[in-house]
Amino acid sequence: MVEIRTLQDADIADWSRALNTGFLRSPLVTEEQLADRRSFFDLDRTLGAFDQGRCVATFRSFPQKLTAVGGAEVPADAITNVTVSPTHRRRGLLSRMMTQDLDAAKERGDVVATLIAAEYPIYGRYGFGPATWTTRWEIDVPRAGLDPRWSGPGDGGRIDLIDGEEVRKIGPELHERLRAGQPGAVDRGERWWKQNTGVLANSFHPWTEPHYAVYRSPSGEVEGLVAYEPKANWTDNKLPQNTAEVRGLDALTPAAERALWRYVASIDWILKVRTPHLAPDSLVPLCFPDPRSAKVITQADFLWVRILDVVRALEARTYNGAGSLVLEIADPAGYTGGRFRLAAGPQGASCTRTTDDAELSMDVRELATLWLGDESAVRLAALGTVTEERPGAAAAADALLRTSRRPWCPDMF
Fold this sequence. Notes:
Order of helices and strands: EHHEEEHEEEHEHHEEEHEEEHEEEEHHEH
Strand content: 25-35%
Number of helices: 11
Structural class: alpha+beta
Low-confidence stretches: none
Distance between the termini: 31 Å
Radius of gyration: 23 Å
Oligomer: single chain
């Protein structure tokens, strides 16, 4: 029988080979890669499936802080590096690793588990649902209609170029301020900033230094940061067809967001701008006089959530409306199912178990899609994945749960 267990240091090389195999990378594992993984892996949260001593499946988790609606952070079990080798598919290895990890997360007191799904159909059976979606745009700069005389913000603010060292100084505080008001955002540790400014560049994390620019408000406060990489492309007639690939853009205010997008699109020789993963309702198309200049190139699910504690999850977030709703939550895995009364309002919420008749019934995965405010219970009822036990209960849920702006997770993990 295939053994599922946590790793010892001696297993990391074999585990890494299995990971590379699952992600269709070269199976060769270098000493540099091993040293990198040893520097941050928590082996107690790193699982492998071993068949006759050879690793054939991988799984890892780490602690994460996820921002709920209203700005409160909840402890999350962030899942990553999930693979099953092609020789061992359909044997229940992922299910066994997932169960072991979620059992531990529940025991620790994590409110939710999170992951970024490479394939859509896999994780619903474990109680995960897509809680945020993402959009990427390509902006046709000549069509955007920008004033060719634009040379900077007209609001008294300014844009300055900085380097990676400065980004590591100002970036963490800027991101913390951003995620405090952005449902779906997650924390970034020191390793994230080192990895995304080239300090940890190696053969496993190839690096090209981008350009960095910050937006400072009229009072001099840093309110936005963008990282972008120009991609050169000159025609035979010496005409520039260059693209600016934006790696990331954090903006605390609409003024900062507009200024940074216009800055990138106004750089000489740049004819196209490609955005990173943004919220589907990002302002980016409307930052330009002609929004049709921004063409959608990616539209997909992004952050998936698995609720492990219904009471704490629903009490952690805020609600714009006021009301009461009895929810029947099915959780076949047994972590947090049952019947709950949610009584919510702008001043706070309480969620308690009840024996009252259910008004709205759903699987825990559907609750995950509703929790951050992105999905509509009315839509899910139309699909048949949510059941109205009382007419109008889905609309009442939307009035409580939906948010005016869509949740967004800026980070892959």
